[in-house]
Amino acid sequence: MHERSLIRSLLRQVEQIVAVEGGGKVTEIRVQVGDLSGVEPLLFQTAFDDMVPSVFSSDCRLALEIVPVTAVCSECEHQFEIVDFQFRCPECQTKSVQVIQGDEVTLISVSINSNNSIEGVAS
């Protein structure tokens, strides 16, 4: 299950952020997960719930935001959301499109001591 290895990496990154910030209680970790990232949100949440108590408090929460797949047409440069995995430009009908969003897992913020928000990015 690769969700567990992603959570392990995420928790290590958050530990580094907490250390740089001088410590504190982590209350929320906000993550964006793209529809095309290969991450199953329920398994990601379950892995987080299982693993977070060994690193942070069990009341630390995961705020998961699902990001839709967005592409840009290589022919007409139209930007659009991919629906039903149809990788075809709705304007000119070409299949020559490039995904520009929705295939990533990104750490957005970490809330420490329930009020401080630290911006960060993860892969």
TrEMBL record:
Entry annotated with the keyword RNA-binding: no
GO molecular function: nickel cation binding; zinc ion binding
One of the protein's GO biological processes: protein maturation
Ligand binding (Ni(2+)): H2
Binding site for Zn(2+): C73, C76, C89, C92
UniProt cross-references to Gene3D superfamilies, sorted A to Z: 3.30.2320.80
Keywords from the UniProt entry: Metal-binding, Nickel, Zinc
Family: Belongs to the HypA/HybF family.
Reported function: Involved in the maturation of [NiFe] hydrogenases. Required for nickel insertion into the metal center of the hydrogenase.
Protein name, as recorded: Hydrogenase maturation factor HypA
